[in-house]
Every structure is written in structure tokens, then in C-alpha cells.
Design a protein that fits this description.
The chain is α/β, with parallel strands linked by helices. It contains 8 helices and 10 strands. Helix 1 packs parallel to helix 2, helix 1 crosses helix 8 and helix 3 runs parallel beside helix 4.
Length: 252
């Protein structure tokens, strides 16, 4: 039976770059995002670079919990080997001055959808040789002005995934691994969406940043390792594989 790697947020950015990187390894993929045209374009591109990879696309707005649950029902007909939760976005602005609807949607996508998919994947696959990789951020380990709600969502991602990793380590029957990828500034649609500015200039905003393809290579390095965290240093921009970073009261 074919096995698939599921990638959410696959229509652009790190998700799309990761899809192509895994396809080059011959992996079969289930790609999930809202934008059908971009997903189809990505599928067509993968067919050229990795014709032996089976690519399934699923159009889904994960910011709606009922859609997430329906999606998981659709995925039950496939055998999965990994779930990579890359879907998410940010929002710039001070607390109390942000577009509240946008903030709520950000929480629904960054936190709620990720928690639902991670929980269902763990329930169904933790006794198999599988991996869950949740995309957090360096902002999931420190707070920055103007992006506090976004950082808070990513703190959830980091803490939730690290905590799950500890739980799996204590379960003698569990074979699944849970991991966190924590990028620093990466040139994607993140900037334009967070600022509502289609002309957002990464060169002006950051002295250094990575491209999506670099982050996809970091993700592969994390995937190939037994590390819990793959993080970019926000000062040096060096990538390293690390143990879980939050304190955990239980035994590891």
C-alpha cells in the first residue's frame, strides 16, 4: 500500500518548497491548501520533476474546524507516514489595534486546526513509524513587539508539540515522533499577509532572511534526525537540531 506525506499550507512558501523537496526523494504526497489553482500548478510542477510521485491535492480552508474534521475523514482512505502542519499566517500590529477578525482567523488556523490534526494523527498513527512536524517560528520561543498574538500562537505550537514528544517518549508502544521546525525570517507570503501590503519588501525589513527552499532543506534535516526541534538562531541565522527546549515536569 502506498504511503503518503501530508503537507498543509502547501500552495506557497515553506509548504510548497517542502512538497517539491520530498517529491525529489520519491515520496507520495497529499497537498492541502485553500487555493486550487496554486495547488494544481504545484502538482503539475512536481509531475515534471518527480513523475513517479503520486500527488493528491485537497482544497480545504483549515480555519474552519468542521472542514478540518471532514478532511481527516477523507484522509482515512490513505496510509500516512508523516503529517507536516505548515498552514498558518501572521499579523503585525499592537494588541488592541489589530483587526480582530483577522486575529481570530489566525488563531483558528495556527492553533485550532493544528491541534485538531495533530491530535487525530496521534490517535490513529502513534503506534506506527510516523512523524508529525509542526511549523512554529523563532517567535514560538521569544516575544517580539508588534507580533504578540502571532508569537502566542507559535508558543502554543512549540509547547504543544514538545509536550507531545515527551508523552510519546514515555509511551512504550508509541513509535511516532513529534517535532518542531522554528524558522526565523523567511521570504514567503508571510510578510505581505501579515502587513496587508502586497509590496512588502523583505530586503528593507530584514538584514538577513532565508528563502523557502533553504527552510525546506532544514525541514528535511529535521525529518531525517531524531531531534525534537530544528531551529534557526535569530541572530546568527544558523540552523541547528536540538532537544526539546521547554521545561517538562514528567520523566523523559
Amino acid at each position: 500500500m502506498k504511503k503518503y506525506i501530508v503537507i498543509t499550507g502547501a500552495s506557497s512558501g515553506i509548504g510548497a518548497a517542502a512538497a517539491k523537496a520530498f517529491a525529489r526523494r520519491g515520496e507520495n504526497l497529499i497537498l492541502i491548501a485553500r487555493r486550487a489553482e496554486l495547488l494544481q500548478s504545484l502538482k503539475d510542477e512536481i509531475a515534471q520533476i518527480a513523475p513517479k510521485s503520486d500527488v493528491v491535492i485537497k482544497i480545504c480552508d483549515l480555519a474552519r474546524s468542521e472542514n478540518v474534521l471532514a478532511l481527516w475523514d477523507e484522509l482515512k482512505s490513505y496510509e500516512l507516514k508523516a503529517l507536516i502542519n505548515s498552514a498558518g499566517f501572521g499579523d503585525f500590529g499592537l494588541v488592541g489595534e489589530q483587526d480582530l477578525q483577522k486575529t481570530v482567523r489566525m488563531i483558528d488556523l495556527n492553533v485550532t486546526a493544528l491541534a485538531i490534526l495533530s491530535s487525530l494523527f496521534t490517535r490513529d498513527y502513534k503506534r506506527k513509524q510516523t512523524q508529525l512536524i509542526n511549523i512554529s517560528s523563532v517567535g514560538g520561543y521569544f516575544l517580539a513587539p508588534g507580533v504578540v498574538p502571532y508569537c502566542a500562537t507559535k508558543f502554543f505550537v512549540s509547547a504543544f508539540t514538545e509536550g507531545l514528544s515527551h508523552e510519546l517518549a514515555q509511551d512504550k508502544e508509541a513509535k511516532m515522533q513529534a517535532k518542531v521546525l522554528a524558522p526565523a525570517a523567511t521570504k514567503t507570503e508571510f510578510g505581505p499577509v501579515a502587513t496587508d501590503d502586497s509590496g512588502y519588501d523583505y530586503d528593507s525589513a530584514f538584514a538577513r532572511y532565508h528563502c523557502s527552499e533553504e527552510m525546506a532543506e532544514f525541514l528535511l534535516a529535521l525529518y531525517d534526525s531524531d531531534a525534537c526541534v530544528g531551529a534557526v538562531d535569530r541572530n546568527s541565522f544558523e540552523f541547528s537540531l536540538q532537544a526539546a527546549r521547554f521545561d517538562y515536569a514528567g520523566k523523559r
